[in-house]
Design a protein that fits this description.
Strand content of chain A: 15-25%
Largest sheet of chain B: 5 strands, mixed
Shape of chain A: globular
Mean pLDDT of chain B: 97
Largest sheet of chain A: 5 strands, antiparallel
CATH superfamily of the largest domain in chain B: Beta-grasp domain
Number of domains of chain A: 3
Number of strands of chain B: 5
Low-confidence stretches of chain A: none
Number of strands of chain A: 14
Low-confidence stretches of chain B: none
Oligomer: heterodimer
Shape of chain B: globular
Mean pLDDT of chain A: 97
Radius of gyration of chain A: 18 Å
CATH class of the largest domain in chain B: Alpha Beta
CATH topology of the largest domain in chain B: Ubiquitin-like (UB roll)
CATH architecture of the largest domain in chain B: Roll
CATH topology of the largest domain in chain A: Uridine Diphospho-n-acetylenolpyruvylglucosamine Reductase, domain 3
Strand order of the largest sheet of chain A: 4-5-10-6-7
Order of helices and strands of chain B: EEHEEEHHHH
Largest interface: A-B, 26 and 28 residues
Number of helices of chain B: 5
């Protein structure tokens, strides 16, 4: 790890001020991606601003027809939350399947979506549930937030405060894990709610998470695994690596979508 | 350099360290508690698992500074008054180790797992061990030991 200057502010206002003053800062949330990245010297921030001690970012609130989750909330907390389990069980299952138990004790919702790893789980939930991402500067719709591999709409100095997940009528997440890394080779989040039908895919796209409009239209007509069974996606634009070809991932998207619709009931 | 302070195994611990010091380096190099192991150093293997404020974490994937003011428990802090913790005793009884390198992390993970899920079954134990790798592949007896300890601790 290269040397850096470290700060652990107690409030969002302090964190913003520190970010404003620093030369080339990085925000540290749970650190489950950033610390391995720093260890490999793949990043060289001048300042690491640790927002892990900011209590106002750690909450889960069910209000009306949505759940608000603070950006600093750990995956384990989301997975175990009675409110999330009641109103949005697919989200609880997704959070409980990220990484391993020790990673879930540290990793945060805000950190996951700010990083936008192309194989991360939370981006699929945000896009698949028409989530609203609240930052220190504005509200960003999930559709506008994820901009490509490791890229988001976030600007310098902008911190995610909370994410609003509206309650779905039906939803489920299914992922096919890489047997070694356990990351999603393909993960598909399906939902039905006031927003209509959404199908969001992670792990497969070269530009990160994306929606599959053809499947959404088919499911809007008929919510059943058979409705998506015949939809084959082109391999173009999908990831290919030593774990699987783009064609294989295209095939997995259909299989995972079928399973997700079946699981959502 | 700046001073980082925390409570480790019930005792106050402080050291003047660089910001980039990992929690596992703080524990091993500054405090001399070498029971916590570094296996892969890439967050995969879980040999470095300790508890921070009661929750199992990978101490190679956390800065010491992130644990400022926290209560840290390492494998050295489990036994009380010369008596092995029930999970340690079960690992000995069921031969839950071969070379022993992964054992501290396995045991710290097991203690955390039993705290969160008192009614463990074999499938759950294997799922929960997702983040701990035994290169001897001695999982069978590790699982047996954890199940026996969870029975014992009920």
């Amino acid at each position: 790890m290269y040397q850096f200057h470290y700060e652990r502010p107690k409030t969002l206002a302090d964190a913003e001020a520190l970010l404003g003053k620093a030369d080339d800062p990085k925000i540290l949330a749970g650190g489950q991606t950033l610390i391995p990245t720093l260890k490999q010297r793949l990043a060289m921030p001048s300042d690491v601003i640790d927002i892990g001690g900011i209590k106002e970012l750690d909450f889960i609130r069910a209000e009306g027809d949505a759940i608000m989750i603070g950006a600093g909330t750990r995956h384990a907390t989301v997975a175990q939350s009675a409110d999330v389990q009641k109103h949005n069980p697919a989200l609880a299952v997704l959070a409980g399947g990220i990484g391993d138990p020790a990673v879930r004790h540290m990793g945060t919702l805000g950190g996951s979506i700010a990083n936008n790893d192309p194989a991360a789980d939370y981006p699929a939930a945000c896009l698949g549930l028409d989530a609203k991402i609240h930052t220190t500067k504005r509200l960003i719709e999930a559709d506008e937030f994820f901009k490509g591999m490791f890229e988001t709409a976030l600007q310098d100095g902008e911190i995610i405060k909370e994410v609003t997940f509206p309650h779905p009528e039906k939803a489920a997440y299914m992922k096919f894990r890489n047997p070694a890394s356990r990351y999603a080779m393909v993960g598909v989040f399906v939902s039905k709610g006031p927003w209509g039908v959404r199908v969001a895919v992670t792990g497969a796209g070269q530009n990160g998470v994306f929606r599959v409009s053809e499947m959404e239209e088919a499911l809007a007509k008929s919510w059943s695994p058979d409705a998506v069974a015949g939809i084959k996606l082109p391999a173009k634009g999908l990831n290919a690596d030593l774990h699987g070809t783009a064609e294989y991932r295209a095939h997995l998207i259909t299989v995972m979508a079928k399973r997700a619709v079946a699981a959502a009931g | 350099m700046s001073v980082v302070s925390m409570t480790v195994n019930g005792k106050p611990a402080s050291a003047d360290v660089e910001a980039r010091t990992l929690l596992v380096q703080f524990i091993r190099d500054e405090l001399g508690l070498t029971g916590t192991h570094v296996g892969c150093d890439t967050s995969q293997c879980g040999a470095c698992v300790v508890h921070v404020d009661g929750r199992a974490v990978k101490s190679c994937t956390m800065l010491a500074a992130q644990a400022e003011g926290a209560e840290v428990l390492t494998i050295e802090g489990l036994a009380k008054n010369g008596e092995l913790h029930p999970v340690q005793a079960a690992f000995r009884e069921h031969h839950g180790l071969q070379c022993g390198f992964c054992t501290p992390g396995m045991i710290m993970t097991a203690v955390d797992m039993i705290r969160r899920k008192p009614d463990l079954d074999e499938e759950t134990v294997r799922e929960e061990l997702d983040g701990n790798i035994c290169r001897c592949t001695g999982y069978h007896n590790i699982v047996k030991a954890i199940l026996a300890a969870s029975q014992e601790m009920r």
